Batch of 2 targets.
Target 1
Amino acid sequence: MKIAIVVSTFPPYAGGIGNVAAANARELVRLGHSVTVFTPAYAAVTEEVTDTTVKRVPPLFTYGNAAFVPSLHWMLKGFDIIHLHYPFFGGAETLWLYRRTLKKKYKAKIIVHYHMDVVGERVLAFFFTLHKLFFLPRIVKLADKVLVTSADYAKYSYLAKFLNKDPQHFYELPNGVDATRFSPTTKDVGVMERHGITADEHVVLFVGGLDQAHYFKGVGYLIEAMSRLKQAPYLWKLVIVGEGDLKIGLQSLAKQLHIDSRTVFSGYVEHHDLPKYYNIADVVVLPSIDKSEAFGLALVEGMACAKPVVASNLAGVRSVIDDQKNGLLVELKNADDLAAKINYILANPDVAVQFGVEGRKKVEERYSWGRIGEELERVYKAL
């Protein structure tokens, strides 16, 4: 099959949706398909993904990660499958505007891969509400099949009323991980020395975007939680992997709470180096604050490296974590609960090891990209 993957962001931009799109592309190429990724040309980049064709489409205009790309529609001629990763404000509307050309003239089947509700703050919250009311029903109708990362998330998302009306229109396909590259190894001495981490310090790890588009990651609550552990009877370092315009404010918060000397902001880490960071961790934390977080790819990557995980009790996220089995769930926006759960894992190494073993087992059974790629291929063929 000839497959077009359409996505708002793509590596080297650090974001879960782009990384999922890249993994889908790699697996489909491995299975013998012709795959081209279409993504906006926000700026000149050095391509990080070199095992599939990537076309950076000049946008008419952009705002954050939104980009209106009307020229995209004619580039999609000749493709059997058009796989849209949503949200893509500007890209989704382009496909809808040219739906007759794409579906009737080009005879393409359209997959909408629904990653998350977009909530936003202030003015953006108003815009996203209007988009949900007007465009979302049309985008769902446009799709020959809608993929969701978990049935749990879909039931509580903006898709719920469409799901209840026509459940056969939807298909659960989780995000995944390269379980060979992300696997348990010894701690990387070079990474630890680079960030001043000693062998007797426990490492609490966060991995995610620190730009405004990822406001929902809740890193501020993680910093507050760690400040509650200043008097813990063990040594620790908080390592925050990511880059973006929120970093300065988070660094300031760490300083205000007097844990700046125990907090490492590593900056952007290339995807191929991420396993080194997961493998220096004693616990991986995802403290997200609203349903813009639908899955939590960092949790699966941490579990693949046999690490215990702690995350907010959100629909979708809780489908990844089996509470008290491979990790712990915490109340949203509750720094005290977050501190207590992190402390429990750090203070009970036997529990941490068992959680890690169970997490790795779940990854091998459900979250391997190879398995997911074959499942995605079956969805395409069924169309």
Target 2
Amino acid sequence: MIEEIGTAAGEIWNLLNERGELSITGVVKEINASQSTAYMGLGWLARENKLEFVKKSRGVLVKLR
């Protein structure tokens, strides 16, 4: 399971590196992982202080630091 989460984290990092700021929902939809694994990947990157979360009126956006 840890390997799957790490792979999802890498996909998320690459996606945000290419596209910049995205909604959390957009990130989850774009990567090749289940919703729960995608959220764990986001948590992994957040714990490593690699993400910045921006609260907007319609939700939360995420981008690389």
